[in-house]
Write a structure and sequence with these properties.
mainly alpha; 4 helices; 31% helix; elongated; single chain
Length: 127
């Protein structure tokens, strides 16, 4: 089962602009993949995105807080740190907010609440 909702629903904290492509697919249509930063290029080749004026040149980012895990607790920690005026980075390999926001608690409550409200309304005198 694929759990990939649309990207606009995934992030409450915006990621910084990333340098490099972190091993993502190479230039469109080439079928190439770029290795880790500092990896040796093939014979007679220059690593893509490493030139001094390249838009993909790695750059350092400095944060006050780095939160590992963007589940419910990580999301709360990041929000609290941000509310305190700190710069925050969230490291998450899945969805921000964790499963609860997308498949577990919240969607099931959203489906059950109208039924509960209707049952309560039917119990009111005069209806």
């Amino acid at each position: 089962m694929s759990r990939t909702p649309d990207a606009s629903a995934a992030g409450a904290v915006e990621p910084p602009e990333a340098g490099g492509n972190g091993g993502a697919a190479g230039p469109e249509g080439t079928g190439e993949r770029h290795g880790a930063p500092g990896a040796a290029p093939g014979p007679g080749r220059t690593p893509a995105g490493t030139g001094a004026h390249s838009p993909r040149a790695p750059r350092e980012q400095v944060y006050d807080v780095i939160v590992l895990g963007g589940g419910a607790v990580g999301e709360h920690a990041a929000g609290s740190a941000r509310a305190a005026g700190l710069s925050v980075a969230v490291v998450e390999s899945e969805l921000l907010g964790g499963d609860c926001s997308y498949w577990a608690c919240m969607p099931s409550k959203a489906l059950l609440r109208p039924v509960s409200a209707l049952a309560a309304a039917r119990g009111v005198a005069g209806s």
